[in-house]
Design a protein that fits this description.
Among the domains are: about 70 residues, no CATH class; about 190 residues, Rossmann fold, CATH 3.40.50. It contains 23 helices and 20 strands. The strands form four sheets. A six-stranded mixed beta sheet has the order 6-7-8-3-9-10, with helices on both faces. By secondary structure, the chain is an alpha/beta fold. Strand 19 and strand 20 form a beta hairpin. Helix content is about 35%, strand content about 25%.
Length: about 550
């Protein structure tokens, strides 16, 4: 192989979409090079074509209707678009490996982790079972998984999200490939696990001299690991260059708008709520989950999801609950909204304890406190129109159908959607639009308190920015009190007035967001802030890009 040639060269690649799609090509006339011993980050929003481009390298197209129509993908001079299925199978995992975004769907749920990694070795390399087993244990140790012997015999569902992702990385690296393609490998991970995975990929890339294509929409991740950056929009490459240049001196308006939408870690201006009354107070809230035991005896298992959690929220204030998965933040939100029952403690809404109330007695309280869920598609009935979904709550609480549907149209205006959206169904909208619908439905009963559980965690950075701006605008106009659940410390810094940091079901630190970020007292809070990807780059991001155009809806 010519040392002066790129490891991978994509020339004029176009990938066609079905005739029913909103555009002709998923990727159009794209040219891109990957060099040995570099990490190339490909960024862009959903629908930009970045995942289709990366999967085209291995011939992994989502359907027979999505196929390459022009161009070449050259690996050591061989055009992979012309390779036979047999040749591609030989290259996959052996010379070019891929880490998928969601390991739970990429891993076989009925095979043990060790068997799945061993399968790669068995197909591509000779050697007896004992030697392969030692290699699998070596790989599990290399990706810093605890107790490789135990992981070897575990099933995917028995591992955490971070452990499953590490197992996927071990599988991808089993044959020491020349190219590693990582498709959003850290999107669903907590900030500390994300930091560990990024460090691991960087260390392994340097050690093996691999070329890495890292597909992401997270500019914090990009700032942390990229050597070069390629920016895609609607299937086109709009900008590429060294990471320092693209992050600090972007040329394309689209790149500038994406960077301007990245939340800063520097909190906004401090707002004083000391004169406002407390509208939500949580006192010594506890909740345990029990499993095992059952009809035939056996020792059950109990997990304390919440242990004596206490905090308060004043009128008009936004309080964020932050922490990793398993910290208890979502359990706290569901207990407060009475979607599940706490074991003990008080939930005082405007002075009245709602914790002991029956379902019937809760009905008037439901009007005062509404919830926005993380996954709007999962929380919206797919068989009802948007207008029906928004009007449902007011109708249940006694408003006439005519008045409720009129209110639904007003709320669509409020959240920035056209009134004709009322006649459409949830599947006809994008993720950001569905989140706006979820917000409109929550506001239909004119609540005093809004509980938002990870409402922007699955959204692209520009759509996330739009939803957060909308939420702040509605909060200020309606005087809402907001309890905001998130694991994203960048989002919390821009949205919240105060934060409550949770760890293993307990509150370890709380206070005004500016004070906690500037002087974190607890070691866990310090670790969370230190793990935020690209934290050093983000400090002057807002000032540097202050004149950038706003992302288009």
């Amino acid at each position: 192989m010519n040392a002066d040639a790129p490891l991978l060269r994509i020339q004029g690649l176009s990938v066609s979409l079905p005739a029913s799609a909103d555009r002709r090509h998923a990727v159009e006339d794209l040219s891109l090079d990957l060099w040995r011993n570099e990490i190339l980050c490909v960024v862009g929003e959903s629908g930009s074509g970045k995942s289709v481009m990366s999967r085209a390298v291995l011939g992994l197209f989502p359907s027979r209707h999505v196929q390459p129509s022009a161009g070449r993908i050259l690996f050591e001079g061989e055009d992979l678009l012309q390779a036979t299925p047999e040749r591609l199978r030989d290259l996959r995992g052996n010379r070019i490996a891929m880490i998928f975004q969601e390991p739970m769907t990429a891993l076989n749920p009925v095979l043990r982790i060790g068997a799945q990694i061993d399968e790669v070795l068995e197909i591509h390399r000779s050697g007896d079972g004992a030697a392969r087993r030692e290699r699998v244990l070596e790989l599990l140790a290399a990706v810093n998984l605890p107790d490789p012997q135990q992981i070897l015999s575990a099933y995917p569902h028995q591992l955490s999200g971070g452990q499953r992702q590490r197992a996927m990385i071990a599988m991808a690296l089993a044959l020491e490939p020349d190219i590693l393609i990582a498709d959003e490998p850290t999107t669903a991970l907590d900030v500390t696990t994300q930091a560990q995975i990024l460090l691991l990929i960087r260390e392994l890339q340097r050690k093996k001299g691999m070329g890495v294509i890292f597909v992401t929409h997270d500019f914090g991740v990009v700032a942390e690991i990229a050597d070069r950056i390629a920016v895609m929009q609607h299937g086109h490459l709009v900008e590429q260059g060294p990471a320092e240049q693209v992050l600090n001196r972007p040329q394309a308006d689209y790149t500038r708008s994406l960077l301007a939408a990245v939340p800063s870690l520097t909190p906004g201006p401090k707002r004083d709520f000391s004169a406002q009354p407390v509208v939500l107070s949580v006192n010594a809230l506890s909740k345990s989950y029990r499993s095992g035991g059952g009809l035939f005896g056996g020792k059950g298992r109990s997990v304390d999801a919440l242990s004596a959690v206490s905090f308060s929220v004043r009128r008009g204030e936004t309080v964020g609950i932050v922490g990793e998965s398993g910290s208890g933040k979502s359990t706290a939100a569901r207990c407060i909204a009475r979607l599940i029952n706490a074991d003990s403690g008080q939930i005082l809404v405007e002075g009245a304890d709602i914790a002991p109330l029956s379902v019937r007695a809760l009905r008037p309280v439901r009007r005062r406190m509404q919830m926005v869920f993380q996954d709007p598609f999962g929380s919206l009935n797919p068989r009802r129109t948007v207008g029906q979904l928004i009007a449902e709550g007011p109708i249940v609480h006694g408003l006439s159908e005519v008045s409720a549907h009129a209110r639904a149209l007003e709320l669509l205006d409020l959240v920035g959607l056209e009134r004709r959206a009322a006649a459409r169904y949830p599947h006809e909208f994008s993720g950001g639009q569905r989140q706006r619908i979820g917000l409109a439905r929550a506001l239909a009963l004119e609540p005093a308190i809004l509980v938002a559980d990870e409402p922007v965690s699955a959204l692209d950075v520009s759509v996330q920015d739009q939803v957060l701006r909308l939420l702040a605008d509605i909060r200020n106009r309606l005087g809402l009190t907001v309890l905001f659940i998130t694991h994203d410390l960048r989002v919390a810094s821009q949205v919240c007035d105060s934060i409550v940091v949770m760890h293993k079901g307990r509150v370890v630190e709380s206070g005004p967001v500016a004070d906690v970020y500037a002087r974190p007292a607890h070691a866990y809070t310090q670790a969370l802030l230190a793990a935020v990807p690209g934290r050093h780059w983000s400090h002057d991001n807002e000032a540097r890009l202050a004149t950038a155009p706003s992302p288009t809806p």
